[in-house]
Amino acid sequence: MGFMNIQEILDNYKTSVYEQDVNRFLSAYASDIHIYDCWNEWECMGIERWKESVQEWFNGLKEESVVLHVHFNDVRVEEEESLAFVYCAVTFAAHDQGGEKLRQLTNRFTIGLQKVKDSWIIIHEHSSLPISSETNEGMFHLR
User: Fold this and answer.
1) Using one digit for the tens of pLDDT, what is the confidence trace for 59-90?
2) Which of 52, 108, 111, 41 is nearest to 77 (CA)?
3) Whole-angstrom distance, CA of residue 9 vs CA of residue 119
4) Mean predicted confidence (pLDDT) in 3-17
5) Rounded Cα distance, 69 and 94, in Å
6) What pLDDT score does 1 carry?
7) Phi, psi of 108 (to 5 degrees)
């Protein structure tokens, strides 16, 4: 699967998370992906390790019987011929099978992409959130 533009990458992310389709989700990532995520580990290196994390994430959603809606907000794209950066706020909203929203959180995202053979692929992803100086806890609900 090739992604001819950045919007296709974002659309793939939203759709594959909603459908909890691990292979489709991973199709946008380079084999040597390097990820800084908000959850549990300092970093994730390589597609096999990322696949384990994504499978664990999607399995948790299935166990809870929830679907996740992803919304990208305030998207900015800096695109050159073979490199691009996307930075935005991404909101994850969990809904039950009846469509009722159960919870949501928003992270900050930066995605680095490289064009390989006329297709874009994610080579780096960084999600973050502010930390409260009073509680030393992540501040998930600022947006």
Assistant:
1) 999 999 999 999 999 999 999 999 999 999 99
2) 111
3) 10
4) 96
5) 6
6) 66
7) -95, 135
CA count, 13 A, side-chain hemisphere, 36:
10
Q: In angstroms, what CA-CA distances link 57 with 17, 51, 79?
A: 10, 10, 30
Higher pLDDT, 143 or 110: 110
- From CA 124, how far away is CA 100, in angstroms rounded? 33
pLDDT score recorded for residue 122: 98
pTM recorded for the entire structure: 0.90
Q: Hey, what domains does the chain have and what are their CATH numbers?
A: 6-128 (3.10.450.50)
How far is the CA of 128 from the CAs of 21, 42, 67, 81, 115, in angstroms? 24, 11, 22, 27, 25
Q: Name residue 29's amino acid.
A: Y
Which tokens sit at 30?
């380079």
Query: What gap in Å lies between CA 10 and CA 4, rounded to an integer?
Result: 12
